[in-house]
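Before the break, one more example. Copy the sequence into your notebook; we will annotate it together after we see the structure.
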Amino acid sequence: MSAQGRVLTIGGSDSSGGAGVQADIKTITLLGGYAASAITAVTVQDTHRIHAIHPIPPDLIVAQARAVLDDIGADAIKTGMLGGKAVVEAIADLLADMAVPIVIDPVMAATTGAALLDDDAVEALRGRLIPLAALLTPNAPEAERLTGLIVTTTDDLRRAGEALLGMGARAVLMKGGHVPGDSVTDVLMTPSGETLLTSARIATRHSHGTGCTLASACAVGLAQGLDLPAAVERAHAFVARAIREAPGLGGGHGPIDHGWPLRG
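Here is what the structure looks like once it is written out:
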């Protein structure tokens, strides 16, 4: 294991810089790790919406990842936007025998609502990728789509989390941002118990990239040798501060501030 923490992130490119691989690279770097990437799609997006998506062929995605793994290596791997069944299956084949922690962010829709994962891909995600996850990081709508359960409360998050553990994930971080209330509670669940992470809800439209950022922050923590609760707690605090210090860019769903550690 590299003391710095090498993380390979596999996901889409966000031209606005707030989410996707750009958010991952910023997060990993600001938390002291080394970021490498395999791009699954090029998106044309701003803070208002995704204007276009150009998928990268699965064999080229895998070739990017193999080039990194064979030369630089990785201490953890994070997946984000995958898009289609063929990509999910190709990534599952690639990661099947990896001995490092894999953090899977089951990205299904953009902050603006654009669909990013089709139904066939969701089924492949359930059967092929979830069993490889050292940590799965769904929000409430993603948990609903993966499990078929209604998720509107923290107890619903727990029930969906149990179902996802039953699908083979070794741990799940059930994100509570979509659950109504004055505070946001994420639930970290493993077969041996749960940890609650609660913070005050911040009323803002500048939250683009929070899911990508949280998952990549967890991944770099694991890559650096932190145990799972410590990695998740640090990631949760990093994202909360980044939301509070969002720079207010754009006229829509603006980005959070990944660079806040540079300013103290």
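Strands lie at 6-14, 34-45, 50-55, 76-79, 102-104, 135-136, 172-174, 183-190, 193-200. DSSP finds eight helices and nine strands in the chain. Try to locate both features in your own notes.
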